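Thread: Modeling a multi-component assembly for a lab meeting

Hi all, long-time lurker, first post. My supervisor asked me to bring a structural picture of a complex we are working on to next week's group meeting, and I have zero experience with this. I have the sequence lines for every component (441 residues in total). Could someone generate the structure of the whole assembly? Inputs are pasted exactly as I received them:
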Amino acid sequence: MATFQTLPGFREFYPEDCARRNHIFRLWRQSAGTYGFAEYDAPVLEPLDLYKAKSGNEIEAQLFSFTDKGGREVALRPEMTPTVCRLVGARASALKRPVKWFSIGEFYRYERMQKGRGRCFFQFNADIFGEPGPEAETELIALLIQCFRSFGLTADDFYVRLSDRNLWFYYLEALGLDQPQARSILGAIDKYDKLGAEAFSDYARDFGALPPVLMEKILSFLAIKSLPALEAQLAALAGEKLGARLADWKKLLGALAAMGLERFVEVDLGVVRGLAYYTGFVFEAFDRKGDLRALAGGGRYDDLVEKLGGPAFPAVGFAIGDMTVALLLEQRGLMPTLIQSPDVYAVIGGAQERLAAFADINELRACGFRLEYPMKELAFGKQFKAAAESGAKLALIYGGDELAKGVVKIRDLAQRTEIEVPRDQVVASVRDFMTGASRLA
RNA sequence: GCGGUCAUAGCUCAGUUGGUUAGAGCACAAGAUUGUGAAUCUUGGGGUCGCGGGUUCGAGUCCCGUUGGCCGCCCCA
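Re: Modeling a multi-component assembly
Sure thing. I ran the full set together rather than chain by chain. Output:
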């Protein structure tokens, strides 16, 4: 046995695993539906250039990519954003705005495996296109929070850290830094949590040591954890862009507070996200205990649709991964035990009775009841045991005595009560019981 | 890509300084039990001890290599 193994980092879903996966998907779908997002899907295999165009060649190292039999350079999708930008870009002029879309799909990255990260994983992606203002962020962050709350998670379990790459760029510009310098600083800020002052060594190498005055201002900006603190820090600096940005912040946080979500959101300018394509608000969701990697991440990417060949089209989006969510739900005891039980279990006497039972079995199934019966002839004792273990609510008993009388026994497996009903009333009786319209005496 | 650690039945594990034909619990299956429930008892199937090589009279056990898992680093769309 075990001559063939799964490829490293790939997962198999036995029924109980699949049930848990589907539980997560179902609640994600339900949340997206209530927020008015429409589901879409797209190919798993894409032209390699779709990802090179956006992120540069070095990203290829983490792609599952190869040349297909037609000589095309292709890659398994590592994320959904470029794909959804293509979809939206191709029909941009025909889509009613705002475009609110979501999808659930599998993604692939050739990486070293770790807790909460494999080479294949599922993501819930939600995006809004065509809305440049913070109203789009409001809607998405609210949906993001709902996606976690629907499992029973609370503000004590997770929170969203909110930041803004534009604000950083405007601020650094006001401090007199140019674009390349600002980008390097953002890279340092991304690592500052882990590395401390060491994080700025790349900047020092490329542009010379950062003057202490600037360093101090950057670090105090980085330390901002609230809107009032942000306003105070920016008060000293004039500028239309900074003023307009601050107004967006007030709008966004005001709207989320009005929704009663302020306990889920924290201002944290230390979040800048690694991706170069983000252009405005960026946010990440984390568990409160902090022993898992990020639960979700997203932000605004106003230039990407155009970069990928579409028209200029503002966009915001986020993605949630299934692995960290599953770990968090297990940790908090919020992963239900999901067993699929039949509604009805048929207990069958012998070969003659089996043929008689099949008529009712098939009709009940056609009516939508989940029904099981033993495939082999078994002693009654065994069958009742199997019926109880199956989790069925009812047992239908097709024995020789019953059939001779033209009846079937219906047993309530929980109450251990049973009645006899005429053969032609079996379907109606089962329906009455299952819908709660009647009980067995 | 780097480092640490581990690998025995479907699962959780035991296996002594190297020594007969590698064990237990759970799970699965059959029977006791051909008309009424999760019990009990009996029995059974299931292992090239991750894979390959080496040392040895003899390796699950020691050595080397390799593959894979877990944890951390790098990275993280």
